[in-house]
Amino acid sequence: MNRISTLLSLFLTFTISLGAQSIEEQLQGLEQEIDALEVQQDVLRSQAEELKLERVRRDLKAVGLPAETYIEHSAMMLEYDEAHEQARWVAHIITPDVISGTVFRSNDFRVDPKVDSGSAEEADYFLKYLQADSTYEYDGYGYDRGHLAPSADFRWSQKALSESYFYSNMSPQRPDFNREGWADLEGSIRGYIFEHPETQLYVVTGPVLDADLPKVERSVNGVSLPRRYFKVILDLEAQRAIGFVIPNRALENPLYTYAVSVDEVENITGLDFFPNLPLPAADEIEAKMEVRDWLPEVPEGDVDPIAAPSLPRGHFNTEQAKQYMGTNETITVVGQVVSTRYSRSGNLWFNLDRKFPNQIFSIFIRKKDLINFDFDPKTAFEGQVISVKGVIQDFSGTPTVNIEKASRMQIFEN
Question: Which residues contact 118 (CB under 8 A, 6 or more apart)?
């Protein structure tokens, strides 16, 4: 009986102890514990983000940057060109975190404090005047502050996204280029990550800084107005890469028509991309270009230009041919015939590698010169890889060669 009394006493004491706290007090205690856990989670997330940013910087340096001297930010690196008041190139990485990122545009455009000579600034793009109602009147110069490394690529990090608004990452872009073709390219590259969620992409972007570029009128620091922009992308895991060179204007053709090899971008810019990649794999990656790996909307029937290093000395692919327009030099160009047609007047046209109307290299045989062929060239060369020798002319922006003799055009055998 004494044992039962003791147990009953203990139970009553425990119950009274629980009842000593009101429901409100118990709830408040739990909420304080939850708040403490959330603070701890925020600290851990911040630490994880810093480690991810450190990994980005480490990986960029591992593949190599186009210059030994550069400015290093949290998730992008760049070389600033004082003469043109913009970056010569900006390197960054698109990580799989972009898929789940929830940070969006900050629009906190500002001078880059790490540019010793002073970066471009707001007055290089527009003026603004404070009105009596505390709003601003804007006087624009006609160009967007175009991101080189796009802010959306950093939407997994508030810090990295904010730094993408430094003026060192801006270049004057025509609105119909920046908001359409350029934005489409950026979106397509991010789309690659959604299709390959376990990889990361190494990206280098910049303006083609020709010596004779005009300046943006009224720009206070003399910002140059680029005619073209480049972007090179590397998937190190898949051992593939691609480049793009795009004019600073509304695009007349699909994105894939501006695709080139990394080697070709190096030839145009004088930059050496991903210099730490081991040879000979690096040469193969940078010379090869499979557009469909990156842009699945490439039309059926088009093919990639032949890798330039695989061609014999003195032979050029269809990408390289454009460099010889107007030089009056006789060169040999190699490519695959993907479309042919007779015009109404009886002239014969061939397109190599890309079909009309997105052609990148054309062959023209006048009706009067067809008599010099003892065979039908349309039937003989359709679908074949051929070499053609002649002077490269500019036909509405397309490198074109006029063939007068059958000996200047033959099936290519390497």
Answer: 111, 221
Task: Give the number of other Cβ atoms within 10 Å of residue 183's Cβ.
Answer: 15
Joined tokens for residue 323: 């460099």
Query: What is the rounded distance in angstroms from the CA atom of residue 370 to the CA atom of residue 143?
Result: 49
47-79 in b/e form (b: 16+ CB < 10 A) is: eebeebbeebbeebeebbbbeeebbebbbbbbb
Which domains are delineated in the chain? 67-298 (3.40.570.10), 315-411 (2.40.50.140)
Phi, psi of 89 (to 5 degrees): -160, 155
Each residue's pLDDT tens digit, 84-133: 999 999 999 999 999 888 888 889 999 999 999 999 999 999 999 999 99
Cα–Cα dist 285/19, whole Å: 73
Residues near 387 by Cβ (< 8 Å), separated by ≥ 6?
Answer: 315, 332, 333, 334, 409, 410, 411, 412
**For residue 364, what are the β-bridge partners?**
349, 402
pLDDT in tens, 214-242: 999 999 999 999 999 999 999 999 999 99
Contacts of 128 (CB under 8 A, 6+ apart): 122, 136, 137, 138, 139
**Residue among 173, 175, 203, 171 nearest 84 (CA):** 171
pTM of the model: 0.75
Contacts of 228 (CB under 8 A, 6+ apart): 207, 208, 245, 246, 247, 248, 268
Cα separation, 100 vs 238, in Å, equals 22
Question: CA-CA distance, 169 to 163, in Å (whole number)?
Answer: 9
